Amino acid sequence: MVALFVDADACPVKEEIVDVAHRHNLTVYMVSNSWMRLPDSPLVKRQVVPEGPDIADDWIADEISANDIVITGDIPLADRCIKKNAIALDSKGKQFTTQSIGMALAMRDLNNQLREQGVMTGGGAAFSRQHRSRFLSELENTIVRAVKNSRS
Q1: Model's pTM, two decimal places?
Q2: Which CATH class is domain 3-151?
Q3: Least confident of 7-21, 56-70, 76-90, 99-113
Q4: Cβ burial, residue 70 (10 Å; 0-12/13-18/19+)
């Protein structure tokens, strides 16, 4: 059975994920370093992990299985999940694939280096309604594909 894993601490689309999961009757694991208010639902599983680097990522990577879906902006976590044949989406609806993850990791490292050198400041574009809409569409399509793949 397909499950959703959410790197929840900085995720701006938690409510949307829960709504879509309810339509498909899928379990959602909200993984965070602290307690957070979430919709009261038997499908939503709150997993609070100790604070520390990569502890939430480690929990997700250990628990996720093939055809499960992770929602994260953490590119190394997405890479770990893809290697387990899971599906990785960011909160703007971009899917990380085996073909794209190498470039995403390289760009992440380059951007970190440029920030450390003071060449690049600031982050990416602000989260918008268009991002939310794209995410919802991609999540819906991804769930349909994952459920179909898990049955074959």
Answers
A1: 0.85
A2: alpha beta
A3: 99-113
A4: buried
Tokens 């976590």 appear where? 77
Crossing angle for the helix pair 129-151 and 14-24, to the nearest 10 degrees: 30
Alpha-carbon distance of 103 to 87, in angstroms, equals: 17
> Which of 8, 4, 39, 45 has the alpha carbon at shortest distance from 21?
4
Residue 121, amino acid: T
Give the Cα separation of 89 and 74 in Å (integer): 10
Give pLDDT, residue 126.
Answer: 83
Residues near 80 by beta carbon (within 8 Å), at least 6 away in sequence? 57, 61
